Amino acid sequence: MSEIHTNVDAAEIAKFDEMAHRWWDPEGECRPLHEINPLRLDYIDERTGGLQDQKVLDVGCGGGLLSEAMARRGARVMGIDMGENALGVARLHLLESSLEVDYRQSSAEALAAEMPGQFDVVTCMEMLEHVPDPGSVLDACARLLKPGGHLCVATLNRTPKSFAMAILGAEYLMRMLPPGTHEYARFIRPSEMEAWMRQAGLSMRNLTGMHYDLINRSYRLGPGVDVNYLAHAVREA
After folding, report:
1. 79 among the known binding-site residues?
2. 81 marked ligand binding residue
């Protein structure tokens, strides 16, 4: 069986499909995603030179929070995910938002074989730490991009601080996320991310941290990538 079909963790898909019907509840399990979505959107918009009229692929789109936000900024968006329930929720929400997003059940690897070099921007947010081979996903993202196209990713660094804050703190103490949402061994160091990008023909252009303010219960972007971070890369021509 090819990599197109094997780089999927069925348990991870099931975990997020189980909570799919609560994806758009800003006070539910996906509250952190709702809170960071404006930061992610502005980062993508700024780093790519503007989303208006860009052809964008959202890899691991889930229930469509980021996909819809990018469509609202004027992008022509396709969202892919392997979770059938999550995609069902994403499609249903389009009836409420009246936006246009093309949702498909597909892996990045499968779509790269079908539609190479067709996107101006590819996003992959909070997804790489949930697949067996993140390097394979990054390689597929590179193949999906046009030469000079932009890739924006978000994930978690593998550090003692991230274990303490993202797992012990966020999942078990503060219950910001369901316990078991993350597996520490799958967190990705920026050096690993950059190596995979380089192998895929991508050049990393920016790396920034995403920080949670416990007192104000809000997120901000800034220096320091020891927990959550965002990265921007460009496909070499």
Report:
1. no
2. yes
Residue 172: predicted pLDDT: 62
List of the chain residues with pLDDT < 70 = 1-5, 171-174, 214-215
Q: How far apart are the first and last CA of the chain?
A: 31
40 is in an annotated binding site: yes
Nearest C-alpha neighbor of 95 from the set 73, 133, 68? 68
- How many residues does the structure list for the chain? 237
Model confidence, pTM = 0.93
In this prediction, residue 168 carries a pLDDT of 77
Q: In this predicted model, what pLDDT tens digit does every residue of 91-101 receive, in sequence order?
A: 999 999 999 99
The DSSP letter of residue 185 is G
Domains of the chain: 10-235 (3.40.50.150)
For residue 4, give Cα distances in angstroms to 86, 106, 118, 127, 227: 20, 9, 18, 16, 30
**Residue 139 marked ligand-binding:** no
Check: CB of residue 107 under 8 Å from CB of residue 8.
yes
Question: Which residue type occupies 84?
Answer: E
Q: Which residues contact 169 (CB under 8 A, 6 or more apart)?
A: none
Determine the 3-state secondary structure of 102 from DSSP: strand
